[in-house]
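Let's sit down with a protein and look at its sequence and fold side by side. Please make up or recall a protein chain and show it to me in full. Label the sequence line and the structure token line clearly, so we can match residues to local backbone shapes. Go ahead whenever you are ready, and we will take it from there.
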Amino acid sequence: MTLNTRLKPVRPPLQGYYSRTMAYLCVAVTFLAISIEQGFTGPTTAVILYSLLYPQLVRFVAVRLRRFERLQSRLALLALDAMHTGIFITLCQFSLVPSLVFLMLISFASIISGGTVYLVAGWMLALVGILISSAVLMPEPQFHTGLLVASCSLISGATFTVVVAAFVYHQGRSLEQAQRLINAEQEKTSKLASNLAKYLSPQVWESIFSGKQTVTLETHRKKLTVFFSDIRGFTELAEEMEAEALTDLLNNYLNEMSRIALQYGGTIDKFIGDCVMVFFGDPVSQGAKQDAEAAVSMAIAMRKHMKVLRQQWRSQGITRPLEIRMGLSTGYCTVGNFGADNRMDYTIIGREVNLASRLENAADSGEILIPHETYSLIKDLIMCRDKGQIAVKGFSKPVQIYQVVGLRRDLGAAPSFVEHELPGFSMYLDTTSIRNYDKEDVIKALERAAKKLKDKVII
């Protein structure tokens, strides 16, 4: 069945054939009426035969030559129809009714094909046809139109108009139905793409769907800043909690950390249990310095946000003070698609990946560790404390490391945040993140807390 379909010649669309046949049939009927009124002559008989045969000839050639389906070919045929219109007007000796009907036919066809521009072009070509044929034939103008010719011209012209209008209406309805099907398919595809996008980092998904990145097994070297974090004491917590509650806690934590990572422009590589791996500098990079600053700023924001999460978890009965530890490293990594042709993963490998992972394992609760190269890029923006050199597994030489203290703007005389934790009390206030229209709500909440605390002390 497939083979037979391939062997059949592809025929061009029939709508042009039908409308052209109707138009030239109108011309044939009009000249037949002229012949009946004035007697058959060689030119009128030739016009009748030509009008009946010409559409069939065009169709025959179009079937043989597929290039007639192209827009240029269709426009050339429309231009030839306009020239024919001028010749037919000359041959009917400028009889008023047939001339107006012929102009109406070419106008209708031109508007359907391309609107006002094609209409003007059709009139101009019809005028050219009139001038050329008049120069050759030198007819005697006869503006009067007999009753039979006028009736036949008007009836055939009206029939053409009604039939073509009905076809255009039917075509419009078909296009409308096709558009609805296309919209439904697009919506279905959009939902599918949205679901699939959740398995990829937004930056990677966007670069693939925009065509900037090909889905092939290829990699390249690039300077990146790599980030690792995990929850200190998560293994012990997993032994104490039910699986469902632990799943909810972990999903909540990963969702919040992902939101912060995307806020700072990080590419989320993967989640491994409670471990989060993020890198900066690919597929979009702001420059090595800016990428490193964004990565460390993200780590600080995550550490701050853990205070909010601990307060939420405490209200859910989780009293263990969960802390995260983080490690970062900056350097050249191999980034791209790894795996097999039918299953690949967009990730990074290299020395800096291993170093960031080792520093995360070496960090204490709430600590952010970075090597010297990362420190040299972010020291103007972020305050760090020198922790000397440590031996790192897999590295032959000791590594100089620094502990990230915080953003310099938050450590001055007027820090932008206030935080304090005691048994039964936890507060974290970041004035830079509070929206203007939320200030009153925050002030009222603090006043209610202060009133409750005072009442409790009095009692």
Q: What stands out?
A: Residues 90 and 130 are 6 Å apart (CA to CA). The beta strands are 219-232, 267-272, 275-280, 323-340, 343-349, 368-371, 382-390, 399-407, 417-422, 425-430.
